[in-house]
Structures are given as structure tokens and as C-alpha cells.
Amino acid sequence: MRTRPLTLPGVATALLCATASPAHASVQPGTTYSGEGTFYGATGVGNCLYDATGDIGIAALNHTDYETSRMCGAYLQVKGPRGEITVKIVDRCPECGPGDIDLGERAFARIADPVAGRVPITWKLVSPDIGGTVAYRYKEGSTQWWCGIQVRNHRNPVATLEVRTGSTWRQLPRREWNYFVSEDGTGCGSDIRVTDIHGQTLTDTGIAIRPNVDQPGRAQFGMR
Length: 224
Prior knowledge:
By secondary structure, the chain is mostly beta strands. The protein folds into 2 domains: 30-126, RlpA-like domain (Barwin-like endoglucanases, Beta Barrel); 135-216, Immunoglobulin-like (Sandwich), CATH 2.60.40. It has 2 helices and 15 strands. The strands form 3 sheets. Strands 2-6-3-5-4-7 form a 6-stranded mixed β-barrel.
């Protein structure tokens, strides 16, 4: 078992297409990874800045594979000595080695005896049949002069987020705390385009600057 501190720093329309080229990521679909599994008192709150949840399938990913929050919200199928479970990444485990996953206590109990504390695991990315559309949340303090945008409830890991600036699109940098940030306010409150690691793209309009409110889009990434 691990214990560790948390470190923090309208109406929509959407189009789904699959014409973009997938961005490079260290964790690739179709690849099985190995490492060690441990557990901690996961609540859903963590470096990905999601809300607390009662879901059993949550976990923290090692710092290397977390990749500046790129894997926040990703679903991983984890196999251990006595079973398997699909977990959603909600946090970062800074002391974990590459390939390691720190699971919630109940999730760990599905794959191993908690008495063991640390067990060998294998895992891979999956694209589950989750309900609902993607959603967007503007960070607390967001205005037309500065804003942070988070994508929520996405079936596949999000590779990029862009905002419309006139007739062009501007890609926003992603912070380790899982928000895409416009430091000068460019594109805040405008159309949003997100691309998953498979190259599928969603474009949403009508997402207003409403901090700490989940605003649904109109579509979801396809299962892969």
C-alpha cells in the first residue's frame, strides 16, 4: 500500500471525424505493458483534478507513463495474480517506476490479495463502452483573459485540444494537472476541437466560460 500527497499547481454542437493523424504517445494502443501493482486510498481526486467518486475502478499511473497528464481519463485493463479489472486513470504516482500502477484499494483486491501489497501486473489501453458524450470544464478563475479547459468523460485518451481563433485553430499546451491552458485568453469561450490518440476529432461549439461546470458536448469518440 502506498500513501502520498496530492500535488496541484450552454448548448453545444459537435462533429466527429477521423481524418487527423494520431499524436505520438509513450503508451500505445495494442501494446501490453508490465510492472508492479500497489494500492492506496483512492477517492477519484488527484493530479488529474477530477471529482471524488465511489467508482471502484480508479488508479494512479506512474510518472513516466502519466506523460504530463496525457493519460488522465484513460482506461486500462489491468491483470494480476488472481484476476483483472478495468480502471480509469485519475492520478499520478510520482514514486512508481515505469509500468507501475497504484490502484484503488478495492480495485487491487480484484486482481490480488491485499496482504501481498505489491504484485506483478500486465496492462493495456482499452476503449470501453462508456455512457454519455464528452464534457468540458473551464477551470476556476477562467475568464476571457486566461482560461484552462479540461476534457471529461472521454472514451479514449485525449491527444490535443485546439480553440478557434478567427479562421484558424490554436493548439493549447496541456499542464500536468490536466487542463489545456490559454495564458493570454486567446480562444477562451470559442469553438473547441479535441483529438484522441487514434486521430478521431470532435468539434464542439457553444461551450461558454462557466468555471467548475461540466458542459456536455454532442458526441463521443468511437470505440477502437
